[in-house]
Amino acid sequence: MRFYLLSVLLCLSLSAGAQLADLAADAELPAFEEQLETYMTATRNDRARTAYANFTGTLYGGGLTAEQQQRVKSATVALARANVRAEFGMADYLEILAYLSGKEKEKQELFAGFHDVLERTLADPALTPAGLTNLLENSLNYLSRGRLDRDSGPYGWKVAGGTPSFTYDAVPLLVVDKVQQLLASMKTDSFAIQETKIIIDLTNNRFMGKGGRTDWQRVGLPSDIFVRLVDYQVDPRLNHLTSDSAHLQYPTYFGDRIIYGSFEDRLQSGGPRAAGDVPEFVSDNPMLVVDNIGEGMRMRGRFELHGGRAYATTEEGTDGVVYFDVTGEDGSRKMQAQATQFVVVPGERLTGQKVKLALYFGQDSLVHPSASIDVDIKEALVKLKRTESSSDAAPFYHSMNRFNIDADNINVYLRGDSAVVGRKTVSFQEKGDVVLESENYFDHRDYLQIKALAGFHPLELIYRYRAQLAYPTDTLSANSLADYFQEGLTAKSIESALFDLQSRGFLSYDPEKAQVILKPKLAHYVESEREAKDYDKLKIVSSTEELNAFLDLKAGTILVEGVRPIQLNARKQVAIRPFAEQVAIVGDRNLDFGGQVYAGGAILSGSDFHFKYEPYYIQFDSVKYIDLFLPEGGEIKDGVQRLSTASRIENVSGYVLLDAPKNKSGSENIGYFPSIQTRGPSYIYYDQADTASLYSRDSFYFELVPFSLNNLDSLTESGLGLKGELVSGGIFPRMARTLSVQEDGSLGFVTSTDSVGQMAYGDRGTYTGEVTLNNSGLVGNGTFRYLEAEITSPEIVFGVDSATTVAQSFVLQESTDPARPVPQVVGQEVNVTFRPYGDSLVVTPRDGGTFNLFGTGDHRFDGSLVLQPKALRGGGTLEWSQAEVASADFRFGTKTVNVDTATVNIKSLDGEGGIALTTTNVSGAFDFDRSTAEFRNNGTEQSTEMPYIQFKTSSDRFAWDMAGGEIKFNTGEGKDRFTSINPDQDTLTFTGNTAVYNTLEGQLEVGGVPYIVSADARIIPGDSAIVVRSGGKVAQLTNARIIADTLNQYHVINRATVDIAGRKEYTASGFYQYNVGDHEQEVELQDIVGTRVGMGLRSEKATATRAKGEIPEETEFYIDDKTRFYGTIELDAGSKELAFDGFARIEAEKLPAAEWFVVQSEGDKNNLVLKTEGVLDPSGKPLYTGFYLSKPDRHVYPAMIRTPDRRVDHPILDAAGVFTYDEDRDAFLFGDSVRINDPASVEGNLMVFDHATGTVSGDGLLGIGGRLKYIAMKTYGTISMQLPEQFQPEAEPEVAINETTTETSDSTAAEGEGGTLTDNMFLLEEETEEAPATDVTELKLSVAAPEEERYPETNAEVMAAIDLILPAPLVAIMTNDLVSGAYSAPQLGINQRIPFATAGIANLFPAGPDRERAIAGLSADAMDLAPAVNRHTFLFSDMKLRWNTDYQSFVSTQPLNGLASVAGKPISRRFESYLEVKMTTGGDDRLYLFIKSPSETYYFFGFKDGILNVVSNNNAFMNALRETKPKDLVLEMEDGLTYEILEVTPGTAQTFLRRVQAAFGSDN
Prior knowledge:
16-stranded mixed β-sheet; 20 helices; 15% helix
């Protein structure tokens, strides 16, 4: 069927096309239009029909002249004859006409041009259908969209500006002149040609351009780099642009010069990239000079620009090279590099591979035949790197130092004329060694290794091949060379060997040319192997993870790091081991270094060596020392071990002659070398470890005259002849001797004095006997005489400042001479030291011995005694049965001792032993005749301790009665502190004005103590005295006073008995004073404890005093003026409040029935606040506080910590929280703690019982309407009443149930059917006023009702937020009505009630800027709350209510009430309104509201049992209600029940008005 329809449509189209094609040329316009319509609609194609419909507007719209209409008709018929499809070509043509029509000259010319081109094209016999289609599509595409591409998306080739015209030049063309911009774009890339001309070959889809400008900004280059295009071609399908004739301007590189070349660009799907290949420019000139690459940098070669990179390249297929040069500021050449290509990131870096380079610095240069370079243009840093290629593997050559540097990378700093070698390039890469070889270096092992790798020796063969040439040259044919190796071989056959030799620096090889170029190293190796020339073994190996070398290219020096030992001649044992592995190369292979030089049997160590290559010696100006090693046994032979002489020759200058200058290779064994030749004196010192204290090198040494040591590799003892003089530092005069090897291996001598003897220590003594010098020192075996003393010993050790020996006993007799009193001294086995320059004899016991002093047998001295012409002094420890004194300077008298600085320990004599007192840094005076001692502290520190009682004192003076055993402390101001050092007492401290330590009883008695601090309490002793016994125990205090804590002193405990355990612990008992009002009382506290509290280390814990006391029930005890209490009272010193745990009751005349309640709270007796929230009576029943609605009595009553009338009584104001008694006001306050503690606070509930007047009042969130279901009412307000006379709760009576409850319902419930207009709701409530008070059930109770008594009125003033569930249209109608009528309503007057309004807003609305703005606006008589916080249906600012017992309702008492807003819209006026909130004793609350606008429009709402009754005299409101869909009037609620909005008659509203006005007589 579908095929049939298509066939029919095709037939119709062909038929229509035939009719249009046959249309006569003179046919009228209507006939043409009719045929065209048939042609365009026959296929039922939407585009064709739309094109035709739009065309009719063009045809008759006045934009075409009559002549143009005829041309259109002719063109259309011609297109039909060309079988152009209606939905394609014909539609294109008709749409083109819309862009050609118009009376403007430009449109007229464009119309004529297009039709001229179209007619000529149609007349072309070679025209193809595709060509005609392209013409029409391309024309429409440009005219309608200004684009070259045919994509439908936002990206493509867009033409901005320009003047289009059509012309025919062999082919139809669309020419757009004066184009502002041709923009090519895709999602990720775009570029533009500015100020160009576009030519479109319409039939062949060719797009060309002439002129225009584009740049490289999209790849990061600046805008002044651009290209002008002479002509170009565009392929929109491939997003490609090419130009064979382009002019580049690159001011940075070429200044004002224009560079001619070709250009190409295309859109990049991955986005433009600086490293990409487009935009691309290639210069025509193959050898352009590119300046300003960087500072002094230029390139030469074909210039190309690809993306953001510049290139210097060679012509393909040629052997040409490009150049990179760097010149200095003075024009001198600094670097020249050649390669096949360089790549430049403008202004940043230049790179090249296989670069032949040379760096020039004065006469110096650093060259390499083939390396990679990376130039940091900004920093002028050239990074040179060798690759794995064999051509790159050749070493760098440093010309000034004539070293080949075998390194993978070198960084050259052009500005600093410096370079670093061997920088690590990759963090995980293992860094190789850097090797520096002298250009004359040769190693026979390397030579043999090359042969082993090749199987024959290629160096020898190449050398011979070159020599046999008729015309020897260094450039050889690789193929000829290979044939020489072995007939028939080619270059390819020996290529691996050539590459290896190239990597070793013997030659360079070009495999493409099959050409070998020899280097001097090849001939050097062959001739050295033949011993036809001298060579060296100078090879420096640098092995370090850091930089290997630093080149100062300006000075021509190289500082090499990580240098391994440098071996110069293995046979002669000549080598260098540099300190810090560092060597400086300072020109033509000369080296400066510090370290060690090994020369046969000598090792020279120093910091100033200079290796001179050409003379071939090492010069040293001041070598630290020379160590000589001689063969064991005195003979040189194979395997012999060399031993050190154990003496060093120091401070030497001279030379080490390494070998003959023409024998650097060591090929000839010349016996003279190596040789040491010294200049000037040198020295041997004897300050080794065992003699350093005796012989300072500045005064005791052996001075050598200049000497020579030759043939060092064969040095023996017999070759030593070191002459000089001993300088002994004044022990003896200078002694000329010749040194030889001694028994200890050192260099020294053995000699004897003549019989007269030798002067010693100037004229202070003489010595006769043998003298030996070695590393043990200068020792005599003979006799030493000093004054009348004569000491003979086999071992007298002579030191520069002393002579020492040993004596078996020492006795000093007592002297009572006042000019020089000396005690008796006896000692055994002592060391004697004579100090000639101190005029003293020092005697010291040996092996733990002591001296006995004073002849008592009790006094022992352990230390050294010094006998001088005037006195006996000593340093050490004096000990006897009562004490021990240590000092560095004792001054001994006949029976006295004086010390300026000493440590004193006085012993305890109570039988338990131990130290009674210890002190340091004191001066002391002891008189053993009188048994007294006095002490004074030299410093300010508290340094006197009493270890036995574990205390210390700040007293700086004390006197000791040795016989009586008493120490009396001076306790002046600032020196009266006593502190425990017992770690368990935490530095317990107190002060006093008298203090005596009894060493016999072992206790300290301190009087005049003002107080002592323990834990957080200040404890005042009853008698102002403290006694401290062994271990720091403080005797018990009685009749003391405790003040706690020490900071705030909240609590005082009198008549206390206290046991102090330490600074952080004590226990006590005492009496706490608790006076309130007229009640004078005290509490006995039996459990007072000061102790550590909290977490953490024991030493860091805080402390607290806590106490507990019991109040018996029979005791009449008041915790405030009108609150009795019995139970437990606890004290925490850190808090002003006491903790009460027991029972309390209000004692007030007007509250005779107050109940006992449980108290578990803290309070300050001066401002007692007790917790009442959740409080219970003694039997565990809950007690309540606040205003409550009584179930049985239907009254509102106040409850003040009492049981309710019934547990189901409903709270009107919940005042649970805390309570306090205000003695000044004689009032009880109940409620939230914030309200009680902060009178300025308005948030929270508060109830006040004025005991003087009997008034009970309160304010806060009220429970009026709190049991509404579905709708809501939130109320803040004040409430007040007089305290009822019968204010005592009665027990709930037993209820006799006569009948079973069938349904809990209000007694006033309506009987009428739902859904009808009725007045029954109020009618029944009025008619059933005599219903039972329960108003809940049909139960009959057997309780007798009490007699009617007048009950106090309950009045309230509220701010109420009421939320009804109403359809939005109803709310909108009502809101608009009330808002519009508000202008004629009375003022709100809330600015006269700001405190009330502020409290209401604060309790009903959340904190924030909106609430604050509303409160601030009250003074302007407006209550404006933002809709963000106020979406309530009604918000009343103030309304007075009164409880009506008969109605069981809170009913408004005034006709005008403040209306703040309706549905969030501000009103702030007083409206006539009436409210009743019915709070029955059973069931949910009910709400009735009547509100009338000044326009006399009223609205009434009554809610009960899920039904909202609604009526209004606003017809729009009622009509909208009646038109509301049933589903919007009956809603299913979350509890599964329904909420219904029900229309009632106006009589219901009137009934409510009568009822509410009758509630309180004339008030309403």
